[in-house]
Specification:
alpha+beta
């Protein structure tokens, strides 16, 4: 998924002092902007007053990746992102996320008139151990127009990812179904159904665990 920022700095360095200064100034500004966006995005994720999304319990992981000279094919970038974060989703869920990201990334890079563009997505996923997560992603793309910068790199993509635990037992089945349709709308219907089946199965399993803990078996020995 493109080059690391450090690699682009090295390319700029080889093209002379002016190219190096211009590239460093632009990349430093974009990195600062990415850090600010991460803080704002994390604050949005923590805000459980948004009733249009599944409420989170705890943020368990977060990271930001900044890459330069990214190929603008949405499916290629989506595959690279999922390869980096394959642990937070099983195979069916990963396919669903990949489909949605591919469409979103095509739109992100598709507007050639915009120098910068951004999109946010969220998913409720099933991890390989069967636990549910909410995965929030914010993608920000910046296309360079300066001839000096284009010689160094054509664009920058910043991907912010926040992974949180969720409680499915607070949701009824219809809400979970609607959530799957909205989060995974670009995925094939068969993939959506598999994701829904897994989420409902996990919800039922969690509900049985809660019921068992609330009604422990009492043994009386005489």
């Amino acid at each position: 998924m493109g080059q690391a920022v450090s690699a682009v700095r090295e390319v700029a360095k080889q093209q002379g002092d002016q190219a190096e200064r211009t590239a460093n100034d632009a990349l430093n500004s974009l990195q600062d902007l990415a850090k600010t966006q991460v803080k704002l995005f994390t604050g949005e994720v923590k805000n459980n007053t948004d009733t249009t999304k599944v409420a989170i319990e705890k943020i368990v992981a977060q990271e930001v990746i900044i890459k330069c000279g990214v190929e603008t094919a949405g499916d290629k970038i989506a595959n690279d992102i999922m390869e980096s974060y394959h642990a937070f989703a099983d195979s069916d869920t990963a396919k669903g996320i990949g489909s949605v990201l591919s469409t979103g990334l095509d739109a992100l890079f598709g507007n050639s008139s915009a120098q910068s563009n951004e999109v946010s997505k969220y998913f409720v996923t099933v991890g390989k151990m069967g636990y549910p997560y909410r995965v929030d992603m914010h993608l920000y793309a910046y296309q360079f127009t300066s001839e000096t910068l284009i010689k160094v790199t054509k664009n920058v993509l910043a991907v912010s990812i926040v992974i949180s635990s969720v409680k499915l037992t607070d949701l009824d089945d219809r809400t979970i179904g609607a959530m799957v349709q909205l989060c995974y709308g670009e995925a094939a219907a068969a993939i959506q159904q598999k994701i829904l089946d897994k989420l409902l199965a996990i919800k039922a399993q969690c509900a049985r665990g809660i019921q068992k803990s609330n009604n422990p078996t009492v043994r009386v020995e005489g």
